[in-house]
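User: I'm writing a tutorial on reading structure tokens. Could you give me a worked example: one chain, its sequence, then its tokens, then a sentence or two explaining what the tokens reveal?
Assistant: Sure. Here is the example chain.
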Amino acid sequence: MKKKLFLATCCLAGAGILTAGDYFFKFAMTPYNKQPDSKEILGTDALFSQKNWFKKFPKEDWLIKTPNGLKLFASYLDHHTAKSVILLHGFMADGDSMAGFAKLFYDLGYKVLLPDARAHGKSQGNYIGYGWVEKADILQWINEIIARIGQSSKIVVMGQSMGGATAMMVSGMKLPVQVKAFIEDCGYSNVKEEVLYQAANLVNLKPAAGKCLVSLVSEINRIKNGFFLGQASCVQQLKKNTRPFLFIHGGKDHFVPTKMVYQNYAATTAPKKLWIAPLAGHAMSLPMYYTEYQRQVDAFLAKYVD
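And here are its predicted structure tokens:
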């Protein structure tokens, strides 16, 4: 009787862990039950003028298809220049959420491409790859710019949060010579480490329980999404990077902890610069320090792109 009770208890516990793992996978790795940010522009928004400019600016719709048939969409803002920037948005946002960055780079003399990452915005996809899967998509967008605009293109890849991590992951790939530099803002160092951090911070899981759950999510992700979470490492990709890189992070970031930017910065031996926006929380460096942010970006790009 005791043996049967023990086995039943183990089965129930196992079923509970699997259920929790499946739910956390959906929560972390899919658009499941999530609402996109509102696109209403409020007068109190620190980037109101930039976002209003972006809303009115004429845009082209671009489309690519991935090797497995997904349709991915982007908005394109033309400019009389050979320089282009690809702006990569964060988790559960879309290209339009990078409106403030679009204005900044346009003012610096860049054409602007704003892709919707797979499973975000208008782009197709069931799973979020946190930059690891999306890095191949960005290489397609790079080649699309070259094909449409010409071999003389000078391309910068810039991203914020998940987009920043994507930029770092792209930097370790074999890339066309037209890619001149990278900028990342508040990206994490490794997907597994970030998910572990969020499990402890947002879900209040104790370390042992968090590691167990995240390991299960990682296994589910490998089956459904093609990779273990620990594989998706910005640090490892940055070790292969050879292009100039500007790292930006908020000094008060408690969503992607500020310590991660130092790990990322140390990982690359390419020309690099680090700027910490002292009082900024997660993804708040641009609205809080717009003038200085633009100055930092301009000085970096003038050195390596212009």
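What the tokens reveal: The longest helix spans residues 2-29. Residues 1-15 have pLDDT under 50 and may be disordered.
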